[in-house]
Amino acid sequence: MSETFKAILVSRDAEKKQSVTVTDLTDADLMEGDVTIAVEATTVNYKDGLAITGKAPVIRRWPLVPGIDFAGTVISSSHPDWRAGDKAILNGWGVGETHFGAYAGHARVKGDWLVPLPQGISPHDAMAVGTAGYTAMLCVMALERHGILPDRGPVVVTGAAGGVGSVAVSILSSLGYHVIASTGRNAESPYLINLGAAEVISRDELAQPAKPLAKERWAGGVDAVGSHTLANVLSMTSYGGAVAACGLAGGMDLPASVAPFILRGVSLLGIDSVMAPKAVRLEAWRRIGADLDLQKLASLSRTIGFDGIIDAARDIVNGKIRGRVVVDM
Ligand code: NDP
């Protein structure tokens, strides 16, 4: 008899009403792919919260095992780059959206989607970083490519107490930037300062409709929030600065004017982690291995078991999760 493993399955009935169950699967139930992996660690990202609660149409194939990222050990492979026993990380590529994802004991995916676990990083650490942290690194790399280095002036991070935000604060401060962390949770100021923020500001300062141009406050930023927050961040960015936009926790709209672009030469840098090419992923994970302080990483993450995933998914869409949640399977 083949081995069974626990999985979360999101289903939809004829009226398109969504339900979430915990079930037993076998490898025969998994979708097509050339590498089968024992999932050792995964995480709960904002997108996983949207998928499990059904708050946004993340899932586009029914029923589906959600979970957009994992780290684990290859069980079997017909892909030339991967052999049984190799340690690998997966982020995105539609996993947890259209392809069975991380919230199961085993996953089967395309070998081309996987990147090797960096030296010195455990599967648990990799998922403390997770897609949120890897996206934060993509944002930092985009700012650097645009010449926004520490000597250009402060950088702002919005949604700072969340997953992307916490890792962005941590990486940017380790690299020597003066980080201004924007949060709606003022009680998290000590946490953000411990991660390396030089200043903490209230989310309210950026929540009102933005003026076309406002006083220049920073050379750049990492925005996980969107909407009025991103519009304000842009209007407060100094001449020639750049903002990496990766999130929509505050809304998908962008009620901004072109003034920052045409009068201050500000650039808006779009960040997508899901379909990012492999070379970019490899560089991001190499940089995570090199630039992320593992002690800080431990301080910004907490660990739950498989049974805690559904509650954590509900909490993250309600803005109740601080930093990162790692799931040890
Ligand atoms: P989290 O929920 O961990 O963090 C989001 C943070 O945004 C919250 O902690 C909160 O920070 C802030 N926030 C939440 N709601 C609001 C609101 N209504 N107005 C203003 N701020 C708000 O999520 P993640 O860090 O995992 O993801 C952040 C965003 O980035 C999400 O939109 C996610 O979908 C997106 N994302 C995009 C990726 C990409 O490839 N582009 C990849 C990964 C994530 P605080 O309490 O500090 O104010």
UniProtKB/TrEMBL annotation:
<dbReference type="InterPro" id="IPR051397">
    <property type="entry name" value="Zn-ADH-like_protein"/>
</dbReference>
<dbReference type="InterPro" id="IPR020843">
    <property type="entry name" value="ER"/>
</dbReference>
<dbReference type="InterPro" id="IPR013149">
    <property type="entry name" value="ADH-like_C"/>
</dbReference>
<feature type="domain" description="Enoyl reductase (ER)">
    <location>
        <begin position="17"/>
        <end position="327"/>
    </location>
</feature>
<dbReference type="InterPro" id="IPR036291">
    <property type="entry name" value="NAD(P)-bd_dom_sf"/>
</dbReference>
<dbReference type="InterPro" id="IPR014188">
    <property type="entry name" value="Acrylyl-CoA_reductase_AcuI"/>
</dbReference>
<keyword id="KW-0560">Oxidoreductase</keyword>
<dbReference type="GO" id="GO:0016491">
    <property type="term" value="F:oxidoreductase activity"/>
</dbReference>
<dbReference type="Pfam" id="PF08240">
    <property type="entry name" value="ADH_N"/>
</dbReference>
<protein>
    <submittedName>
        <fullName>MDR family oxidoreductase</fullName>
        <ecNumber>1.-.-.-</ecNumber>
    </submittedName>
</protein>
<dbReference type="InterPro" id="IPR013154">
    <property type="entry name" value="ADH-like_N"/>
</dbReference>
<dbReference type="InterPro" id="IPR011032">
    <property type="entry name" value="GroES-like_sf"/>
</dbReference>
<dbReference type="Pfam" id="PF00107">
    <property type="entry name" value="ADH_zinc_N"/>
</dbReference>
